[in-house]
Amino acid sequence: MQPAFFLTGSGEKAFRWYFGGLASAGAACFTHPLDLLKVHLQTQQEGKLSIFQLTKDIVRKQGFLALYTGISASLCRQLTYSTTRFGIYEVAKQNFGGDTFQAKVAIAAVAGAVGGYVGTPADMVNVRMQNDIKLPQDKRRNYKHAIDVLLRVYKEEGVRKLFSGATTATSRAVFMTIGQLSFYDQVKIILLASGIFQDNLATHFLSSLTAGAIATSLTQPLDVIKTRSMNARPGEFKSLWAIIIYTAKLGPLGFFKGYIPAFVRLAPQTILTFVFLEQDSEEEQCSFLFLN
């Protein structure tokens, strides 16, 4: 039987391809409300409400559970998008010479591009479900769950709409994967090489926090454009450029709307993902050593 965990020639941990997707899904269960708030901030053109005011407004009008609107879509997204990018990244890194930082960045870019495209339908579903509760009652789509959104969009708007925003989603995923995966590996290597840190929770926390900050800064403009594209009604924007012009009316900071909730969401998302991922690997190592 093939072990679920092993060590590479350089002593680096190697994971089964699906660990990243499961870890990301687990993290999403904790960070979903922050993702919902980020979407709401990005889709309001005037943007007068702060994240605290927005949270209070949603809970007061819809109840606390409204913060978990679209959780099924969020899990669906992580199980497609993150499973793909983590799987490609880890397998390629372990088998095709991902020993240098430059190689890891290149592998992460490819993994992110594929993962971003594969995860676009689930990403679109996630945006639609999260944004629905902020609309007036007569304009809500009233989706039941992620599968309901996929089927309704396919029937009502066509298969092309499922991949609405695929260009920006894929571009964003490239930078997100570079920021999260390759920088996590690199920061962890630097910390361990210093002789001060050990391969433990503190190192995993610092590495993932740094990776989360880098990933947020790299992806926020693309994330704003992607969110507007996925949430747009048929015919609202003629092209991607039209969305960029529409967003630019708010000034340069318009492309960084929702940055704080994006970082507040992505930082714990990144931290929890890698903590879960590293924990899974340690448990698998113990199981493998015990069985052998």
Automatic annotation (TrEMBL):
It is a multi-pass membrane protein. It comes from the Eukaryota. It is found in: Membrane. SUPFAM superfamilies: Mitochondrial carrier. InterPro entries: MCP_dom_sf, MCP_transmembrane, Mito_Metabolite_Transporter. Solcar repeats lie at residues 15-95, 99-190, 199-283. One of its GO terms (cellular component) is membrane. Keywords: Membrane, Repeat, Transmembrane, Transmembrane helix, Transport. Belongs to the mitochondrial carrier (TC 2.A.29) family. This is Mitochondrial dicarboxylate carrier.
